[in-house]
Specification:
Blueprint (H helix, E strand, L loop, with lengths): L20 H8 L3 E5 L2 E4 L1 H20 L3 E2 L5 E3 H7 L10 E4 L5 E4 L4 H11 L8 E10 L14 E11 L2 H21 L4 E5 L10 E7 L5 E6 L5 E3 L19 E4 L6 H8 L7 E8 L2 E8 L6 H8 L5 E2 L2 H6 L18 E5 L8 E4 L5 E6 L9 E3 L17 E16 L1 H5 L3 E3 L5 E3 L1 E8 H11 L1 E2 L2 E2 L10 E5 L5 H16 L4 E3 L6 H11 L3 E5 L1 H6 L1 E6 L5 E5 L4 H10 L2
Parallel strand pairs: 3-7, 15-17, 17-20, 27-28, 27-29
Antiparallel strand pairs: 1-2, 4-6, 5-6, 7-8, 8-24, 9-10, 10-21, 11-12, 11-21, 13-19, 14-15, 14-16, 18-19, 21-24, 22-23, 25-26, 29-30, 30-31
The structure holds adenosine-5'-triphosphate (ATP) and magnesium ion.
Length: 569
């Protein structure tokens, strides 16, 4: 390829909405253009990177026996109605009607599609296990599309689905996929970490997310330095905190004027915060949910959703609180009816003695509240959000927090969809049984952005060689110097013939402009050819990642040297 012909229009100014490096750099360097919010065109450089990621994904999927198919983007509403998800998927689902007013959606994911496909074709245990995958555009009308390709509304995903006869089979399929994902992200050159992920009502260790470690990541993870434990903070389980026994004191109501926060209350009453309980109120499709945690703890919404078996939660409004007989800032579990509203109490609160909490009355709190005696929860559960320094749920060591970009997820579905959609097979005894399913996604376009997030500097992108759009840029520094231009062309042809992905900057530009663009675009290697090359008999080779410059004698086998070097980048 010749830079003079390359369709990669660079930008001097990037739109203010581009906040993170990958978004800014891919616009500036001419990798992509925005068509609408969260919807992008991939230009040739990006498309080459995406192909490389896709090929790595393909090779690893094929290697574990998953077979590539392509399902339609446009999916009929009926299959989603059958699984029950048509009404619960919400506004994220892109719904469309055909000319006959029949309803469809643009696939946000393909569990319904693949399960109805397989149920029609697979009848016997002899046809199982089976695993299929596809690489395709997915559509999700995200509430906040942002960060360019990180959270877009149309994006490329590899999604795979496994079908097994039993749980042992599912576990084997899951393990194979987990290992394939580890190889995929390693081959892409990324620094990543698999973490335990929330698996909804299913619970257990039914899901892992693959997180690329980056400060701009939207996900928060915790990990333990002592053991190998790592989890999405949403999922991280916590042990119950025991407190020393105390004789129960008499419950007392006290005035706490103008004390809206738990810190105000503790300061006013001169109580340690560990002696207080605070409340967070949510609304859900099943009504109000009042959650109680220790004053210095935070509520984990995902755990609340799983505990209460609701679809989702949002902050409750004051009208709901009034109707429930309480008031914002002064909520407490005492005197509320656990059958009318969901009172969810953190497991560690149940171990506290003589604590302080709201009295459900403006300006008042209770002192000396005791679980068992003074209130009845609807649910007692672990609903706390893990914090830096908390005890590791596996080994008791201290956990640390980090930010990550979720580039992939593996998930055991068990029989969730096969039961809802009646995907059964006949076992050896001729008895129908639901298939055991798993689903596995890689965000292909997000992976490209994550790589840029992890590898960039003030000058631009620094691609790992495995996914770079081109490996080597040859730069003739002086277009007027016939001899060196000819040498550059020669080297370009030689590298090309040796199978190196090479591009030559044949533009009639100053060397500075060429070098700047090269750094911005992020080619792993740059070969400079000028009059000095001819006079000294040495090629100048620059490694983008380290800035290191090497001199390669023209009489040496520099093609092999370059190829070997690329394997290490
Ligand atoms: P998130 O929590 O980030 O919204 P998700 O858990 O809903 O993602 P999955 O359903 O697990 O996503 O999809 C599989 C993969 O697709 C994700 O791991 C992620 O890499 C990618 N992905 C999901 N949503 C988007 C998006 N809006 N833009 C780009 N990639 C996405
Ligand atoms: Mg996910």
């Amino acid at each position: 390829m010749r830079v003079s012909k390359l369709y990669a229009p660079t930008l001097r100014e990037v739109p203010a909405e581009a906040e993170i490096p990958s978004h800014k750099l891919m616009l500036r360097a001419g990798y992509m253009r925005k068509a609408a919010g969260g919807i992008y065109t991939y230009l040739p450089l990006a498309w080459r990177v995406l192909h490389k990621i896709e090929n790595i994904v393909r090779e690893e999927m094929d290697a574990i026996g998953s077979q590539e198919i392509l399902m339609p983007v446009v999916q009929p509403a009926e299959i989603w109605q059958e699984s029950g998800r048509w009404d619960v998927y919400g506004a994220e689902m892109w719904r469309v009607k055909d000319r006959h007013s029949r309803e469809f959606c643009l696939g946000p994911t393909h569990e319904e599609m693949v399960t109805t496909l397989i149920r029609a074709d697979v009848r016997s245990y002899r046809q199982l296990p089976l695993c299929v995958y596809q690489i395709q555009d997915k559509f999700r009308d995200e509430r906040r599309p942002r960060f360019g390709l990180m959270r877009s509304r149309e994006f490329i995903m590899k999604d795979a689905y496994s079908f097994d006869v039993d749980e042992a089979g599912l576990n084997a399929s899951y393990k194979a996929m987990y290992d394939a994902y580890t190889r995929i992200f390693t081959r892409c050159g990324l620094k990543f970490r698999p973490v335990e992920a929330d698996s909804g009502a299913i619970g257990g260790s039914g899901s892992h997310e693959f997180m690329v470690l980056a400060d701009s990541g939207e996900a928060e993870i915790v990990y333990c330095e002592k053991c190998n434990y790592a989890a999405n903070t949403e999922k991280a389980e916590l042990h119950v905190i025991e407190t020393a026994p105390e004789a129960a004191q008499e419950k007392q109501i006290v005035a706490t004027p103008d004390c809206k926060t738990i810190a105000d209350v503790c300061a006013y009453l001169k109580l340690p915060v560990e002696k207080s309980v605070k409340a967070v109120a949510y609304k859900s499709e099943k009504g109000l949910i009042l959650c109680f945690v220790r004053g210095d703890h935070e509520v984990n919404e995902v755990k609340v959703v799983n505990t209460c078996h609701v679809l989702g939660v949002e902050m409750a409004d004051e009208a709901m609180l009034t109707a429930a007989g309480t008031v914002g800032g002064y909520m407490g579990p005492v005197g509320l009816d656990p059958k009318k509203i969901m009172i969810v109490v953190d497991q560690s609160v149940m171990k506290m003695h003589n604590f302080c909490c709201g009295a459900n009355k403006e300006g008042f709190h209770y002192l000396n509240v005791n679980p068992g005696r003074d209130f009845t929860p609807t649910y007692v559960a672990d609903i706390r959000l893990i914090q830096e320094g908390d005890a590791c749920p596996h080994c008791g060591g201290k956990v640390s927090k980090a930010r990550g970009i979720e580039v992939g997820q593996v998930f055991k579905l068990f029989t969730k969809y096969s039961e809802a959609l009646k995907a059964t097979y006949l076992d050896e005894g001729g008895k129908p049984k639901p298939m055991q399913m798993g689903c596995y996604g890689v965000g292909v376009s997000r992976t490209m952005a994550a790589a840029v997030e992890q590898y960039n500097d003030e000058n631009g992108i620094i691609w790992p060689a495995a996914i770079a759009p081109y490996h080597v840029l040859v730069v003739p520094v002086n277009n007027k110097d016939q001899e060196s231009v000819q040498k550059a062309e020669e080297i370009y042809t030689q590298l090309q013939q040796a199978g190196v992905e090479v591009i030559i900057d044949d533009r009639n530009e100053r060397p500075g402009v060429k070098f700047k663009d090269a750094d911005l675009i992020g080619y792993p290697l740059r070969v400079v050819v000028g009059p000095k090359t001819i006079s000294t008999g040495n090629l100048e080779l620059k490694i983008r990642k380290t800035g290191e410059v090497k001199m390669l004698p023209l009489i040496s086998d520099y093609v092999t040297t370059i190829k070997e070097l690329l394997k290490t980048l």
